[in-house]
Amino acid sequence: MNILTEDDEFVPLHFVFCNFYGENTCFCWNNDKFVMFPYIQEKYTSLLPVFIAPGYIKVIQCFSNRVFFTCLPHGIYKLSRDGRFSVLSKSAISIGSIFFEILKTKDDCLYLENKQKKLSKLLLHLPPMSKQIEELCTFPLNMENLEHEFRNILLDEVNMLDNLCLIGNGKKLFTLTKEVIHLIYSCDNKIMNIVPIQNDNKINGLILITNTDAIIVVHSKNNILCYKKIYLGVDVKTLCTGLNQQHNDKIWIVYSDESKLYYMTMTLSTEIYKKVKTEEKSFVCIQYYKEDKFVGLTKTKELHELSINVIENYVNEEISKDDFIDLHRDMLKDTDLIVEQIYEKAKELELWNKILLTEEDKLYRINLYACKKKIQMYPKMTVYRIAKQLFLNMDFQENLPKNVYIVCSLVSNYETTFSIKEIANNETSIDLPIAIKKLLNSLQIRMDLVTIINEEQPWFLIKDFVTDPIIDRKKKLKEKQKT
Length: 483
Prior knowledge:
Helix content is 16%, strand content 47%. The protein starts with 13 loop residues before the first strand and ends with a helix. Strand 10 and strand 11 form a beta hairpin. The chain contains 5 helices and 36 strands. Among the domains are: 1-90; 339-366; 374-481, Immunoglobulin-like, CATH 2.60.40.
């Protein structure tokens, strides 16, 4: 589509599509001059009038079917149906989350001013004489144009119904909602522009364009925000991006430098990206248009509507390659050698694993002694007779530490009978002989734990390692009553 204007010297360098009072309208501009026309497939034969804005145009934004011009160095103006401007603010540098919230600077500070409430609030302190004011970029988001999951991550649940504005200021990215600003990302490079990753009328992520050849893809993954930096290797003049219609895990990116047009695809889950194609085309500005199309503006005042089928075809081919792999005899060559190497490495790994378990067990036993750790349990106790001898059997069915010794002692009539046994598999059973003649009404059973660091180190003893839970509760109750 050729843009025919009454002023032959007017050459637009930027354009944007806006819903201007219910009609899909294209705005093209350069410096303080612009044209506007309904964007349709038919060619225009009549000349378009060139309008003059109140200042050099920085950005054109649409809010609720109304269009606002943000000018340089400051000033925001609303455009009427008949091409006339009304002043929203002559001193504002940008619009916030909604058109009546504007951003202003004063005394090296950034303020948010609510035109309805006639209130002003300090947001940020800026460096003195900073160029960040001129380079500040914003991008408004609302309930209608933001994908639900992405919005939930950007906003708290209590703020689900509020509009949101992203602010790129220098190397930092902020969110602004309910007149509160939050820092969400710090970059190594200056953020120059914020481009949405679109899917029809929904925004699924963002791309931050920096002052270098790097871009940063902002997307959601497992309920967190992820930032992937990609070095494109060229001086990017313009860029647009969108979500793949057939595969929601993939996005497409189209960008242009002074001489070529580049196509790229990226998988969000793995953050793997790849350049798909390069064409000998040059655009001064490109914009997302539909789910499978984008529009580019040339230096010769032409709008070209292009398809992203080249990326869709590439993605489909890659997926089909992943599904079907051709096998060849050469693939089986030297596989026996590979299997032997795997077997040897597995044996080596098993050996190191045993060493690791041994060291962990040593450390655990040292910690047992250092912390004087005790356990509460009820060993299963039974009394049985062999010939004329009675035995007390204590069966420890619950888990006990490995590679330690359990000492069970029976005190009766001032005499102690004990038995010691190693615990190999977390459980054990111990027998104690009982002398019937020496049994009294009072019978004490104690269970201690003996552990060693290794064979060369001394033994450590933990007295009363196994305790009766009921007795422990009674002791604690008595201590509380005393205090």
